[in-house]
Amino acid sequence: MALGTKTTIRRATATLLCCATALAFAPEAHASGLYFSERGVRPLARGGAFTAGADDLGAIYYNPAGLADAGTQILADMSWVNFSSDYQRRSRLEQVDPNTGQFTGTVWERTHPSVQGTSPVLPIPTLAASTNFGQENVNFAFGLWAPYAAIPTYPETLDNGEPAPQRHSLLSLGGSALAVLGAWGAWKASPELSLGAGIEVLAGDFNAEVVLNTCPPDRLACAPEDPAYDAKAQLKAGTIIAPSGNAGLIYAPSKDVRFGASFQLPFWIDAPAKVRVRLPSSTLFDEASVSGEDARVKFRLPWVLRTGIEYRGFSNTRIELGFVYEAWSMHDAIVATPENIALENVLGIDYRVGSISLERGFKDSYSIRLGGEYALALGDYRLDLRAGAMYESSAIPKSHLSVMTLDLDKVIASVGGSLHLNRRLRLDAVYARVIGFSTEVSTSEAAITQVNPIKANPPESRTAVNAGSYAARADVIGLGLAYNF
Fold first, then answer.
1. Dist CA 28 CA 153 (whole Å)
2. What are the structural domain ranges in the chain?
C-alpha cells in the first residue's frame, strides 16, 4: 500500500476520534442557550415575572428571599415541554481538482430536504418542602428543580433512505436528565426587607448522538460529506456534579409595592464521559481500531441576574414587570480531554488522541416579562387567574446556530390558575406557548464546521454544517399542588 494511502487512513481515523470527543460534548440547546422555556407552573403562568412576587416554594429558582413568606409548605409540580422544530439545510459546494484537491473557483449551493425535531413525553418536576424549625423570621427549604429543556430527536435517514442533512449536528439528546438539588434559607430582616440564599448542585447525565464524517482534509480519497465516511458517535457525560448557588432580596416599602432582585451563580462543569464510535463503512477503515473510551469535559454555564417590581394596589390583583440578564458570553468553549483514547494497529502505527477545545461563540441575552394574577371567589373556593408574556433574546449568534444548540429570539405567552380547595391545599395549572422567531443562516454566515484537528494539508475552506432555515416552537402544559401546614 502506498505511503499516501497510509497517511490518509491515519488522518481519517484521527479525525473521527477527535470529532467524536469534541462534537458530542456540545451541550443541549435551550432558552437563552440552555433552556427553551421559563419554568415552574405558577411562575410560568405569570410569564416568568416572579422575582418581586415570589412567596411560595417556586422562589427556590426565582428569588430565595421569597421563602420568607412561604411558611411551612410542600410544593410539587410537573410540566411537559412539547417541543418541535423544522430545519432545512443549505450547503455550499465547491468544485475541487480530483488530482490535486485544489479549489477550482466554481461554487454553488444545495438546498436539502426539511427535517423535523421532536421531543418525548417527559414530565419535568419541581419538588420542594420548607420549614422554619420553630424559629421566628426565618425559613428553610430543601428540594430540586429541573430545567425546561428541549430534548430533541432528529432522523438519521430520510424517507428515501438518504442520510439526513442535519446528521453532522445532531441525531438525538435522548436519555439526558439534569436536575438542580439544593438547600435554601431566608430571613425576614424587617417587615419591609427579606433576604435569602441557597447552595445548589447541578446533577445528572447528558447524552448525545451525532454522525461524524471522517473524510481526510486533503479530499483526495472522498468528498467531505461522503456517507461511506460517516461515523456514528455516542456520548454519555456523567454523572455531572456541578456546584452553584443563588441569593436574593425583596424590599416592600409599602403594602402595594415590592421590589425584588436575585443573582444565580454560574455552574462550573467538570465531568467524566464515555465516547463510543461506530467506524465508517469505507474500506479504508477495515484495519482501524480504537482503544479506550474515557474522557473529561469542562465548560461553564452563566450567571443570571433577575429583577422585578410588583404592584398590588388593585383589588385582589398583583402585576409584576421583570427583567432578566444572562451572561452566556462566559460559555465560550467546551474543552474535551480524552483519557487514554488511542488508535491501535493502524497499519502498525498507534495514535493517541489529544485535548480538543470547541469554540461556542455565545453572547449575553436578556428577557422582559410582564405578568400577574387575580383572585376571586368561586362559591366556597378561591380561584386565582394568571396570565403573562415575555420576550427573550437568543444567546446564540447566527454563525453558531444549529439543531444541537437551537435557541431563537422568542415570545412566550401563558395562562393558568390555582384552585384553593381549602386554606391549606392549592391546585395549580399552566399552559404556555413558546414561539421562536424563524431564522435564516446563510452559507457565508455559517461557522460551525466538521471538527478537524489534523493540521497537515488542510483544505482551503472547511465544510460548514449549520447553514439553512430554522424554526422552533413548544407547548408547555403543567400541573401542580401546594400544601401549607
1. 12
2. 3-484
Q: What's the angle, vertex CA 274, arms to CA 153 and CA 448, rounded to 5?
A: 55
Dist. CA 406–CA 383, nearest whole Å? 37
**To the nearest 10°, the Cα dihedral for 24, 210, 215, 217?**
-40
Give the per-residue pLDDT at 33.
40
84 vs 142: CA distance, rounded Å: 33
Q: For residue 238, give the C-alpha cell.
A: 456523567
147-172: pLDDT as tens digits? 998 888 999 999 998 999 999 888 88
Distances (CA, A) of 483 to 52, 184, 208, 271, 410: 22, 19, 38, 37, 34
* pLDDT at site 1: 36
| H or E element in which residue 94 lies | strand 73-96
CA 358/CA 375 separation, integer angstroms: 50
- Looking at domain 3-484, what is its CATH homologous superfamily? Outer membrane protein transport protein (OMPP1/FadL/TodX) (2.40.160.60)
Asked if 304 contacts 366 with a C-beta cutoff of 8 angstroms, the reply is no
- SS3 state of residue 286: coil
- The pLDDT score that the predictor gives to residue 462 is 65
C-alpha dist (Å) from residue 304 to 265, 364, 428: 7, 10, 27
Report DSSP letters for 321-378, one per residue.
EEEEEE-GGG--EEEEEESS-EEEEETTEEEE---EEEE-----EEEEEEEEEEEEEE
Share of the chain above pLDDT 70, in %: 84
Residue 223 has pLDDT above 80, yes or no: no
pLDDT over 80 (residue 316): yes
pTM above 0.90, yes or no: no
Q: In which region does residue 161 sit, left (phi positive, over 0), alpha (psi from -120 to 50) or beta (all else)?
A: left
